Amino acid sequence: MSHTEPTSITCLSVHRNTYSIDYQLPTIQPIPNGLIPIGQKYGLSSLDAAKINRLYNCMSCGGTLTVPGGNFSSPGYTEHEPYPPFSDCTWTMIALVGYKVRLNVLDVSVEYSSSCQYDSIEIRDGMVPTAQQLVKKCGTGDIPTVTSSQNSLLRFYSDSSDESTGFLAKYSFVPAA
């Protein structure tokens, strides 16, 4: 990571020295013991970001999924609590060549609006937010099984109000045949 790249921390997104009193000093020092060093020469490692997320109780959601199958859910779902406001989570499923992604989204409960502009679940056929949209859902109920090409992206977004329980997703990689 170069010193000009942003550090990806769930509740903080800053450059290495953005809020430092001296540009040569790091922005973030761990608490409660400021003597414990964190970071690399030019920024934070992914392990450092994980430690900071835990230390500051930051919400963590989204990620890249490359194992042949598994589950993931909106923040708070497994604790039977509402997802937080301003959630913006993206899961990218990357299958091996010759496989497709099969995705089931169950137990959906997100704020309803006619065009799903407040809270929503989007599924795309590809790894980028501009890939072909396969599904956009808000309200309640399961999303019928979706099979995409080799890669798939699920984005969950919530606005500032009317939080609910979210969703549970199950995915698997199936032969493209």
Automatic annotation (TrEMBL):
<feature type="domain" description="Peptidase M12A">
    <location>
        <begin position="1"/>
        <end position="62"/>
    </location>
</feature>
<keyword id="KW-0862">Zinc</keyword>
<keyword id="KW-0645">Protease</keyword>
<dbReference type="InterPro" id="IPR000859">
    <property type="entry name" value="CUB_dom"/>
</dbReference>
<keyword id="KW-0378">Hydrolase</keyword>
<dbReference type="InterPro" id="IPR035914">
    <property type="entry name" value="Sperma_CUB_dom_sf"/>
</dbReference>
<dbReference type="InterPro" id="IPR001506">
    <property type="entry name" value="Peptidase_M12A"/>
</dbReference>
<keyword id="KW-1015">Disulfide bond</keyword>
<keyword id="KW-0482">Metalloprotease</keyword>
<dbReference type="InterPro" id="IPR024079">
    <property type="entry name" value="MetalloPept_cat_dom_sf"/>
</dbReference>
<dbReference type="GO" id="GO:0004222">
    <property type="term" value="F:metalloendopeptidase activity"/>
</dbReference>
<dbReference type="GO" id="GO:0046872">
    <property type="term" value="F:metal ion binding"/>
</dbReference>
<keyword id="KW-0677">Repeat</keyword>
<protein>
    <submittedName>
        <fullName>Dorsal-ventral patterning tolloid-like protein 1</fullName>
    </submittedName>
</protein>
<keyword id="KW-0479">Metal-binding</keyword>
<feature type="domain" description="CUB">
    <location>
        <begin position="61"/>
        <end position="174"/>
    </location>
</feature>
<dbReference type="Pfam" id="PF00431">
    <property type="entry name" value="CUB"/>
</dbReference>
<dbReference type="GO" id="GO:0006508">
    <property type="term" value="P:proteolysis"/>
</dbReference>
